[in-house]
Write a structure and sequence with these properties.
Layout lengths: L2 E6 L5 H12 L3 E2 L1 H10 L5 H5 L7 H5 L3 H17 L4 E4 L3 H4 L6 E7 L2 H12 L3 H23 L11 E4 H4 L1 H12 L9 H22 L7 E7 L2 E8 L5 H9 L6 E8 L7
Parallel strand pairs: 1-3, 1-4, 2-3, 4-5, 7-8
Antiparallel strand pairs: 6-7
Helix pairs in contact: 1-10, 2-5, 5-11, 7-8
Length: 273
C-alpha cells in the first residue's frame, strides 16, 4: 500500500484533500490530531509537541536552550514511526524531507491561489478579509522560516515533491483522485522490509536525541546511531559534566533499547584564574 506525504499552506484545502485520499485508499491519515495520538501511543511526553508551533525560534528561545530542537526531534520520531507501517497519508511537519530518501513514498504538494486561501479562512474562521490576509502571510512566513531552521531546505524547492496539485483549479475530489491514481501506479513500489527497518531505527534515533536534549546534554559533538534493533551506539565528545554512565543510563530508559555502546571522549571546560 502507498505511503504519501502531503504539504499545504493554511487555507489551501490540503487537509481536506489528504482526508479524501486516505479514505479513498483505505489507509491511515496522520494529520495533527492523529500524529499527536501516535505520540501518546509511543509513550512520548507530548507537552513539547503541544507547546511549540512550527515557526523559527527567536533570539529568546535560542538563549533558553534547546527546547525547539527537542520538539523537532520528537516530531521526527513520530513521523518515522507513523511511516514504518509502510502506508498512510502524512500531512506536513517536514515529512517530505524526512522521507525524501525513501523511494516508496510519494510526495505531494497541494496549492491554491492566495485569494482562495483568504476566502476559505474567512468562511471557516468567521474573520474579516484583513485578518485572513494577515493569517496567510504570517503562516507562510513562519512555515518557511521553520523549514529553513529545522531542515536547512527551502519549503518551496520543487525537488522536494513528486507532484504539485492545484485543488482550486481541478476541485477537491479530482485533486484527491489524481493522487489516488498516482499512488496506485505499479512504478511506485511498496516499502520493502529494509526501508521499514530503517524507518524504525530513524524513529528510535530521533527519540533518543530528544531525550538527551531534554536533560541538557549537548549533541553538537555527539553522534547517535541505531545500527540494529535494540542496540544504540554513541560516539563523540562530551562537552559538559555528564558522564558516559549518565548518558548510557538515560538512553537505556528509552523503550526498545537493550544495549548501549558508548565510545566518547570527555573534555572538561577550561578554567580561568
Amino acid at each position: 500500500m502507498p505511503l504519501i506525504t502531503i504539504t499545504h499552506g493554511i487555507g489551501s484545502d490540503g487537509a481536506a484533500v489528504a482526508r479524501l485520499v486516505a479514505e479513498g485508499l483505505g489507509i491511515p491519515l496522520f494529520d495533527d490530531a492523529n500524529l499527536l495520538g501516535a505520540a501518546v501511543r509511543m509513550g512520548l511526553d507530548v507537552e513539547p509537541l503541544q507547546k511549540f508551533k512550527e515557526k523559527p525560534p527567536g533570539w529568546f528561545e535560542r538563549l533558553i536552550g534547546e527546547q525547539f530542537d527537542v520538539f523537532a526531534n520528537l516530531m521526527g520520531a513520530v513521523i518515522f514511526d507513523a511511516a514504518r507501517s509502510g502506508e498512510g497519508v502524512i500531512v506536513g511537519h517536514g515529512s517530505q524531507v524526512l522521507l525524501q530518501d525513501f523511494s516508496c513514498a510519494l510526495h505531494v504538494r497541494v496549492v491554491s491561489t492566495d485569494e482562495r486561501r483568504i476566502q476559505n479562512l474567512m468562511k471557516q474562521m468567521g474573520v474579516s478579509r484583513e485578518v485572513a490576509e494577515r493569517l496567510v502571510r504570517k503562516n507562510d512566513h513562519e512555515s518557511k522560516g521553520f523549514f529553513r531552521y529545522a531542515f536547512h531546505r527551502d519549503r518551496d524547492d520543487p525537488s522536494l515533491y513528486d507532484v504539485c496539485v492545484n485543488s482550486e483549479k481541478i476541485g477537491l475530489e479530482r485533486a484527491a483522485q489524481t493522487i489516488i491514481d498516482m499512488a496506485r501506479y505499479p512504478e511506485l513500489k511498496a516499502c520493502n522490509i529494509y526501508a521499514l527497518d530503517a524507518l524504525e531505527r530513524f524513529s528510535k534515533t530521533r527519540r533518543i536525541e530528544a531525550s538527551l536534549r531534554e536533560q541538557g546534554i549537548q549533541l553538537k559533538s555527539l553522534q547517535v546511531e541505531v545500527p540494529e534493533k535494540g542496540l544504540v551506539r554513541i560516539t563523540g565528545i562530551v562537552e559538559n559534566q555528564a558522564s558516559k554512565g549518565d548518558i548510557a543510563q538515560l538512553v537505556k530508559l528509552v523503550p526498545g533499547v537493550e544495549r548501549v555502546d558508548v565510545d566518547m571522549l570527555m573534555v572538561l571546560p577550561a578554567s580561568y584564574e
